[in-house]
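user: Here is a favour to ask of a fellow structure person. I have my own habits and do not want them to colour yours. Could you put it straight underneath, so I can go through it closely?

assistant:
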Amino acid sequence: MAINGLWIMLGTYCAGAAVSLLGDRWANVTRVLGHACLLIGALSGVALAIPCMTAGVARTAALHVALPQYFPFANMVIALDGLSAFFLMVVSIVAIAAAIYGPAYLKSHAGSSSAVEVMGINFFVGSMALVLVAGDALTFLLAWEGMTLASYALVVYEGKKTNTHAGLVYIIMAHAGTALLMVVFLTLTVHAGSFSFAAIRTAVVALSGPERSVLFFLALIGLAAKAGVVPLHIWLPQAHPAAPSHVSALMSGVMLKVAIYGVLRLGMDLLVPAGEPLPPSWGWTVLVLGSISAIVGVLYALQQHDLKRLLAFHSVENVGIILMGIGMAMLLAHRGGASDALAVLGLAAALLHTLNHAAFKGLLFLSAGAVRSATHILNIEDLGGLARRMPWTAWLFLLGAVAISALPPLNGFVSEWMTYQTLILGSIQLGSGSGLAVITAAAVLALTGALAAACFVKAFGVTFLGRPRSRHAAEAAEVAPSMRAGMVVLAGVCVVIGILPGYAIFILNAPVMSLLGGAGPSALVTIRGPLVLSAIGGMGTGTAVSITAAVTFFGVLALAVLGVIIWPRVTKSRREPTWTCGMTPVSRFDYTATAFAKPLRFIFALFYQSKRTVSRKTGVSPYELRELHWQSDVVDLAQEHFYNRLQSVVTRVAHAIRSKSTGRIHAYIGYVLVTLLITLLVFGRG
């Protein structure tokens, strides 16, 4: 049965890509059939993953299929265990929403090619699914490259100059990371004598500790480039806004999580003999990178005015939060006693936040796509007043904003609170200077949550409240029902996990046990009915997460909103326009995104570097000022001080090489001979 589900999933993705051969002549048919195949494949992925997670399969593969031997040097294998099943479920859930949302979204963008998008999105999701079920290094690398190329095509297919540049930056970063992964896997296969993950697990025992550490850090860099970890994040805020919005939801919501899967598969499975503690340097590196990514991502998001770019920086933040939980699990795993229990709690928090982030970030990107479809702009300074014109989109965006801000009673609160508990209780276990460092990470997490809430107050308030600031916003109308249905799917995930967090813990047993062995998180988390979750953490005392209180608060808030709506209808009140010193109120009276973010720019002035542009137009006299334009942008420090300088060096070297390219064959033969001579002198001594 599982094998049939696997072939249905992969087969429908291939069929969806083949539908693109119909071309744009039958654009409506191409859109509908292509996304229908995507929907069937995603539903098959969920049906394949859930039994694996609920049946208690953890350390052994629930599905193991040998593929035909396409290459004489490797046997390709598909294997599904608890970890890969969990991530397959995450990918499939967001793909379901994207499949429902996509046709109407593409129809509203008549200038785009439906055939290219249909082929790309099916190939993209199918490649991600194949990465997750790969049971050998060759299948993993081939699917990884397919995922990269498909997402690149979806970024650049509209042909705009900004898209082309974003795609170039993305493909360079992605292929640099892939090169490092190839080095890691080829090294492991040489020692194992096989590409199979099972053979690699057996052979890794023979590697020394330093050798395993070198391979882990190479893999971490390669995977961090795909996950958008600071300072390898510069492609993410460029590429994600360039793609279609439902593709952005997939890239930001789940493609980054495939890289997280790679970190877990290599760092806690293939590179570590079963039952051995991980080197502390691994956990500390992941924890530090996660903390930096979390705070840097949210700080840059605060200063963005493009809605999708703002959301892209929040992906950097949330990947950092996930890495914080993984880092703590690495530090505490297999050390005995309470440390093992906290490692389980930390890994469970990271995995739950992986699912939560996929849901609320996918919802927010789909909502941003709805705004773009209705207004054709994404600069929130030119929006405003959309709540009355697009009430469904406004409420769904607000729900996603509450979830990503880690506020109860939605899902973001549960996983961030579990991460926070792991950091606090883990600091007690580590003690001394290490404990202080972990407490600092906990403070970073708390600050990140507060700044995220401030950012989404800005994003929602300026975009949906107040008066329209442009003709596009004033003429906006609600999007098609199918687009709203796609958003509702992910909104439902946010609500269900937030209200019933205890039941969500059960699906984490299989992936956690596949990496750490022993008891799953459900053995450490007491479930007192559907609304109360109490994490014990092996400390002897529990810290209660009372979702009941959150639900009570939510109910009181709902009653208050209902009262505000009903009260004016049952009472007679006299309404007069607000006194504005005799002037007619206009949209310029409303708070802008720039004004909202300005105080925080002053507070974090040492971190931000601003570029200001001021242009003036004067009359006959230079003292007669007719127009004044002022613009201020925040500079990405990593891009400004490292990547731009690296680009300058590469450009100078390229120009120097070009100046020596005379076109004479004798000179080229001379270069080859000199290079050969140097190579023989350096490497021929052995």
User: Anything to note?
Assistant: The longest helix spans residues 338-375. Residues 527-548 have pLDDT under 50 and may be disordered. The chain has 25 helices and seven strands. The first strand starts at residue 63 and ends at 66.
